[in-house]
Specification:
Protein name: Indole-3-acetic acid-amido synthetase GH3.6
Strand content: 15-25%
Number of strands: 22
Family: Belongs to the IAA-amido conjugating enzyme family.
Pfam family, one: GH3_C
Helix content: 25-40%
Number of helices: 22
Bound molecules: adenosine monophosphate
Oligomer: single chain
Structural class: alpha+beta
Largest sheet: 8 strands, antiparallel
GO molecular function: ligase activity
Keywords: Ligase
Shape: globular
Length: 611
């Protein structure tokens, strides 16, 4: 008989309970002392970086107090930082922004000049990201008990990475996180117990990754208590993949062998640890997937699922009806708000309705400031608004975390440990309430973004330039685009951009369909690299569509907008349409439609880099 242990170990439940309690206490503490924590964070950032070139250039001279900081440092955008970023990318290792070595660049889905923004980061930021992740399940467990008794089926992916000319890796923040030891070598924790083995997540081939993650999720279907992906678009893509591949997946489950298209040896080995021949399960899945209706497919295939964990705030809200359909109305849970620059906050009321989600910024993550936004003033309404520098008065208007006002909208400005100082993230947030002294924000929008399907963010200037480039194809026919607008069509999976064009024709030669198809492709070629990556590599965006509308359609659009309260004097054609009555007018007057015949060009890394 085995010897009894001398001291009884702490039951696992107690440990978990302890960990949860500590995480919740941490949230209590940092939100109750939000202002002191923020003062300390700023002093820490400024004192450790006192000698970096950027702060000396602006004359901060080692001061670490808020007043000197605000008086001395400008509020900036990425464009202001670009020369410094380029030097770091080219291999300058001197402390330009940060006293700690820059470990890599995180490639944001926000773009500048058509290329992803490069956010310098340092090794220790991984700890801050891990800390934010560690708060999510303790919060969730207050509302949904027993989540530790099963698994999460999360569709997680890595994307390709590139090297800067100076040799630093450049990749998206989640790719960096999944490839880090924080994720790969995480100790067993019931809350990070996923159906997808690491090997399936870490495969750069998106087909093999998706296939194997679904296969493992199906094999463990009874254990699954929650399902999700980072963004709603990614989760819906997984369901669509299942629609297209369930027969193959069932074959694998029936026979206990893996589809030969899955060639990655690490994946095959990891999947074989889970996959066993199970004809009964294969029959069950075949019956469900073969059903004409896919309504509620999530709850049918994974019957113990309690919620869908995906971001549905911001532009992702366009996917809520589709998710509701597939999940039979399960709660859609948005747990966190984060970016390449910094991870910001968590949702403390995760079962609330998507429209009511608010994120509590965690005051230890960075130093936060807020620029009041008045969305009805001229500047914000300007249809083509470039980010402009702030004048002195506007710089003085920035308020601290604890000073924001309920109901007011602000642009988020961060100062990070990795060397961003008073950096405008580009997100507009509205104060929805407070957790102790820390504000909770609704995510309102990303500034200037008109079109988005997945993580792509296309602004009006890019759209305008892209349309202008496409017009060259119409010139030989003496035709111009008199008016245009756009729409993100998410009724297809994947979703795609639609442009509505009203033509003014002076020539008498008919325009062949191939010319409009060339226009579609020309628009796509002109859009930013995140869009093109979505088309080419991730397959998360479908071919762009141009719909030609009858002459006079845009007059009707204006009449309709005015009847709904738009001002006659100030009316400008919206460059993106979301309002259903306006869309109806456009769609009812379509005379022909064309799709991009192939994918635009895309290669990893910036166009200036040789890789
Ligand atoms: P990236 O820099 O590519 O990581 O993208 C970060 C951006 O994604 C943020 O600045 C937001 O615009 C958007 N985002 C991140 N989390 C959320 C969220 N929970 N809700 C809405 N938008 C989000």
């Amino acid at each position: 008989m085995p010897e009894a242990p001398k001291q009884a170990p702490k039951p696992a439940d107690d440990n978990l309970h302890d960990k949860n309690r500590k995480a919740l206490q941490f949230i209590e503490d940092v939100t109750a002392n939000a202002d002191e924590v923020q003062r300390r964070v700023l002093a820490e950032i400024l004192s450790r970086n006192a000698h970096v070139e950027y702060l000396r250039r602006h004359g901060l001279d080692g001061q670490t107090d808020r007043e000197s900081f605000k008086k001395t440092l400008p509020v900036i955008t990425y464009e202001d930082l670009q020369p410094d970023v380029t030097r770091i990318a080219n291999g300058d290792k001197s402390p330009i922004l940060c006293s700690h070595p820059i470990s890599e660049f995180l490639t944001s889905s926000g773009t500048s000049g058509g290329e992803r923004k490069l956010m310098p980061t340092i090794e220790e930021e991984l700890n801050r990201r891990s800390l934010l992740y560690s708060l999510l399940m303790p919060v969730m467990s207050q509302y949904v008990p027993n989540l530790e008794k099963g698994k999460g089926m999360y569709f997680l992916f890595i994307k390709s990475e590139a090297k800067t000319p100076g040799g630093l890796v450049a990749r998206p923040v989640l790719t960096s996180y999944y490839k880090s030891s924080h994720f790969k070598e995480r100790p067993y924790d019931p809350y990070t117990n996923y159906t997808s083995p690491n090997e399936t997540i870490l495969c750069p081939d998106s087909y093999q990754s998706m296939y194997s993650q679904l296969l493992c999720g199906l094999c463990q279907h009874k254990e699954v208590l929650r399902v999700g992906a980072v963004f709603a678009s990614g989760f819906i893509r997984a369901i669509r993949f299942l629609e297209n591949h369930w027969a193959l997946l069932c074959h694998d489950i029936r026979t206990g062998s893996i589809n030969p298209e899955i060639t990655d040896p690490a994946i095959r080995e990891a999947v074989m640890r889970i996959l066993k021949p199970d004809p009964k399960l294969a029959d069950f899945i075949e019956a469900e997937c073969g059903n004409d209706s896919w309504g509620g497919i999530i709850t049918r295939l994974w019957p113990n699922t309690k919620y869908v964990d995906v971001i549905v705030t911001g532009t992702m809200s366009q996917y809520i009806p589709t998710l509701d359909y597939y999940s039979n109305g399960l709660p859609l849970v948005c747990t966190m708000y984060a970016s390449s620059e910094c991870y910001f906050g968590v949702n403390l009321n995760p079962l609330c309705k998507p429209s009511e989600v608010s994120y509590t910024l965690i005051p230890t993550m960075a130093y936060f400031e807020f620029l009041p936004v008045h969305r009805n003033n001229g500047a914000a309404n300007n249809p083509i608004s470039m980010p402009k520098s702030l004048n002195e008065k506007e710089q003085r208007d920035l308020v601290d975390l604890v000073d924001v006002k309920l109901g007011q909208e602000y642009e988020l400005v961060v100062t990070t440990y990795a060397g961003l100082y008073r950096y405008r993230v580009g997100d507009v947030l509205r104060v929805a309430g407070f957790k102790n002294k820390a504000p909770q924000f609704n995510f309102i929008c990303r500034k200037n973004v008109v079109l988005s399907i997945d993580s792509d963010k296309t602004d009006e200037v890019e759209l305008q330039n892209a349309v202008k480039n496409a017009l060259n194809h119409l010139a030989p026919f003496d035709a111009i685009v008199a008016e245009y607008t756009s729409y993100a069509d998410t009724s297809t999976i994947p979703g795609h951009y639609v442009l509505f064009w009203e033509l003014s024709l002076n020539g008498s030669n008919p325009i062949p369909p191939s010319v409009f198809e060339d226009c579609c492709l020309a628009v796509e070629e002109s859009l930013n690299s995140v869009y093109r990556q979505g088309r080419v590599s991730d397959r998360s965006i479908g071919p762009l569509e141009i719909k030609i509308v009858e002459p006079g359609t845009f007059d009707k659009l204006m009449d309709c907008a005015i009847s709904y309260g738009a001002s006659i004097n100030q009316y400008k054609t919206p460059r993106c349409v979301k309002f259903a009555p306006l869309l109806e007018i456009l769609n009812s007057r379509v005379v022909s439609k064309y799709f991009s015949p192939k994918c635009p060009k895309w290669v990893p890394g910036h166009k200036q880099w040789s890789n």
